[in-house]
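sry for the spam today, last one i promise. struct tokens for design, 753 residues
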């Protein structure tokens, strides 16, 4: 692989006009496609195999005119202190508002609170329910404007008017913090690479890659029914890995220049060596993201595949566009070890090109990476214990993990949806914010009405039931809908217990009456989603870790190194989940993170974090440990190889981790609770994995294992193809006369481990 990538790097360097033109043309083509593509239609949120989805599909069939998938709006009115909604003036205002709300072309029905008796017990709060024939994402802007206008006019009369439901759902935004994250990444790149030009290349290529990836998602959003958060998550991951992959190749290019290579040879060698690590690191991320398909939630599958596509683009950009731009940059990018003019030094390399690893000659004073690695290999047991215990403590809150999906109660208090949620809770109890829809299929029952009456009475006798509305039959008389109001808020464990209790009762009723009792609604759907994700977590973990384990055996030609990598990942992801629980569930530092309402952790968070963090964790593992492997196969002892790997890799890996943290942390400013939580979770996971696992636990374990770390059974060694990630074959070929310096005879002879 290293030889193939070496040739690709040289080709891109020589044919830089063609390569640059190709990527610019592709970006322009995708941009035109995204601009001309139809707006994304409604997102179909289906959960195959769940009772809530089965019930929803039954409603679509038996109640075709009910617009079960249509948007809803709950307009909540509150009278001023000391007044009631039954006062003549307020009643006239509400009735006029209801009339105005019913005039919309997309409106199916509007309830009058004075007819449906949706007045609070003290008479201070009332609400009207608006049902639409299309989903929230299909609603025209004029319909939303009319809804807000009607509420605004009612508020002018002195009432407090808020709008709940999903009719005003909007695409989330990430806020200015994302720009701050990119700015931090730029500063880190300048410090790491020493010049504005060198620092600009990773940023430029990452933006090109994300532009192509996100542009493609936008262009296909309508066709593939992609969720509005899909491009945000794709840009989050694509930007982070795009910068990191480019950083590794640019850093290796400067190191090859410091060895005395000409610029074309340096570009080829950088792509051949660091590029090999980029390919396998990208593969682990892609495996983790595409593996989300095993959960069998279409929305999650699409998110994973879209993000994986953006990662593939980032890898291809790093392997081709980076060497092309290096050709354009010329002497404006200086060798490693040379003092940049940016910091007032002279652009002269002090290296002699005698290092096995292909990096700059060792300076008189060991760098920070060398000093840290020497400290770890001298005290591996102490470092290992501190790292494991520290992550273990951070993971403790994860034992109290509660999963759920956010409702309007998780919205910021500045939103009208959240204020409507609070008013409903105040006037009618929290359960009204998440009513349960019980559907009774009496098609096989001899006495449908008796069966439905039995179901109604059984539900009334269950705990935590605030109210049970009369059943409504369809025209055929073979299906009935019963609305059940829980006594607790939608995301509570009491409501979850109630859903399970209704389903258990339904099983007994079916045995007696042949009537099937099913439960759906947003609350029941959330419960089923959480259960489905919990059930899929272990199979997903086994699939992703198993495939990546095989891939890493191929890369490192070792059994224990991939095993250590996987166990280290588990530590970091558990610690990160603990931090998420502490902030979003317990409320620690919630003000700093902009979390206005604590509650259960989003149910897809653990499985999504496992997928993304595993891929990113393997990035650092591959980049850092391949340098150790490279030194080891070139003749260094296991301990020396660990130090060498840190000498040449610690600075770049540290910079890459800081950049990823900055990019992910930028999404904490999102208005969407899911994006905010994912941004925080990924940022803290990178912190734990890069600086505790990869920088402390990994070298400690390798120091303790010694030569055993690189052991591979002979039969497996013969069976595995040699992908030459460390570039051994490439360097042998170049040493035999293909090197741009005329044979590379000043390099030490390569030896096999």
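last one done:
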């Amino acid at each position: 692989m290293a030889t193939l990538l070496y040739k690709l790097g040289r080709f891109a360097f020589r044919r830089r006009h063609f390569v640059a033109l190709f990527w610019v043309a592709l970006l322009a083509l995708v941009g035109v496609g995204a601009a001309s593509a139809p707006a994304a239609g409604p997102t179909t949120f289906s959960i195959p195999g769940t009772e809530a989805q089965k019930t929803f599909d039954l409603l679509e069939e038996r109640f075709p005119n009910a617009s079960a998938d249509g948007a809803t709006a709950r307009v909540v009115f509150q009278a001023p202190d000391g007044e009631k909604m039954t006062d003549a003036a307020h009643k006239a205002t509400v009735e006029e508002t209801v009339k105005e709300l019913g005039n919309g072309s997309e409106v199916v029905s509007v309830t009058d609170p004075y007819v449906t008796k949706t007045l609070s017990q003290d008479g201070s709060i009332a609400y009207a329910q608006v049902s639409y024939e299309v989903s929230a994402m299909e609603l025209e802007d004029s319909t939303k404007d009319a809804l807000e206008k009607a509420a605004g006019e009612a508020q002018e009369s002195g009432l407090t008017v808020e709008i709940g439901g999903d009719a005003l759902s909007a695409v989330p935004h990430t806020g200015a913090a994302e720009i701050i994250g990119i700015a931090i990444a730029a500063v880190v790149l300048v410090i790491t690479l020493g010049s504005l030009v060198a620092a600009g290349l990773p940023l430029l290529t990452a933006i090109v890659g994300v532009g192509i990836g996100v542009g493609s998602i936008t262009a296909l959003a309508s066709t593939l029914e992609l969720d509005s958060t899909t491009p945000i998550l794709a840009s989050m991951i694509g930007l982070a890995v795009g910068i990191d992959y480019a950083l590794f190749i640019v850093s290796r290019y400067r190191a090859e220049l410091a060895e005395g290579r000409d610029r074309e040879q340096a570009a080829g060698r950088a792509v051949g060596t660091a590029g090999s690590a980029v390919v396998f690191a990208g593969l682990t991320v892609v495996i983790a993201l595409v593996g989300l398909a095993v959960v069998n939630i279409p929305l999650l599958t699409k998110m994973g595949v879209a993000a994986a596509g953006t990662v593939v683009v980032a890898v291809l950009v790093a392997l081709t566009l980076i060497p092309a731009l290096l050709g354009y940059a010329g002497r404006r990018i200086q060798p490693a070890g040379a003092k940049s003019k940016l910091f007032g030094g002279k652009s002269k390399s002090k290296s002699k090109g005698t290092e096995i690893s292909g990096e700059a000659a060792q300076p008189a004073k060991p760098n920070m990476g060398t000093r840290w690695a020497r400290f770890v290999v001298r005290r591996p047991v102490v470092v290992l214990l501190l790292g494991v215990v520290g992550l273990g403590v951070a993971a403790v809150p994860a034992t109290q993990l509660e999963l759920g999906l956010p409702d309007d109660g998780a919205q910021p208090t500045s939103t009208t949806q959240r204020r409507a949620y609070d008013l409903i809770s105040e006037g009618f109890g929290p359960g009204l914010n998440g009513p349960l829809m019980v559907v009774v299929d009496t098609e096989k029952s001899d006495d449908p009405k008796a069966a439905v009456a039995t179901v109604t009475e059984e539900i009334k006798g269950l705990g935590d039931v605030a109210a049970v509305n009369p059943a409504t039959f369809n025209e055929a008389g073979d299906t009935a809908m019963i609305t059940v109001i829980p006594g607790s808020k939608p995301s509570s464990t009491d409501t979850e217990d109630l859903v399970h209790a209704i389903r258990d009762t339904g099983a007994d009723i079916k045995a007696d009456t042949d009537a099937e009792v099913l439960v759906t609604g947003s609350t029941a759907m959330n419960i089923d989603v959480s259960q489905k994700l919990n059930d899929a977590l272990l199979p997903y973990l086994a699939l992703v870790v198993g495939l990546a384990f095989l891939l890493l055996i191929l890369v490192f030609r070792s059994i224990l190194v991939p095993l250590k990598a996987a166990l280290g990942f588990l530590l970091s992801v558990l610690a990160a989940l603990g931090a998420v629980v502490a902030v979003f569930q317990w409320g620690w530092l919630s003000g700093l993170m902009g979390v206005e309402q604590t509650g259960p952790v989003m149910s897809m968070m653990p499985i999504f974090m496992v997928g993304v963090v595993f891929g990113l964790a393997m990035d650092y593992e591959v980049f850092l440990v391949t340098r150790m492997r490279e030194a080891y196969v070139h003749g260094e002892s296991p301990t020396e190889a660990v130090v060498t790997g840190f000498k040449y890799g610690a600075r770049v890996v540290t910079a890459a981790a800081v950049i990823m943290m900055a990019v992910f942390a930028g999404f904490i400013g999102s208005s969407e609770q899911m994006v905010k939580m994912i941004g925080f979770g990924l940022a803290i996971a990178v912190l734990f994995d890069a600086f505790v696992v990869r920088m402390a636990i990994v070298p400690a374990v390798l120091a303790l294992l010694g030569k055993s770390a690189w052991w591979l059974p002979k039969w497996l060694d013969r069976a595995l193809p040699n992908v030459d990630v460390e570039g051994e074959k490439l360097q042998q070929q170049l040493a035999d006369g293909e090197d741009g310096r005329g044979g590379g005879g000043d390099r030490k002879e390569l030896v096999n481990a």
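Confidence is low (pLDDT under 50) at residues 340-363, 738-753. ok im logging off now
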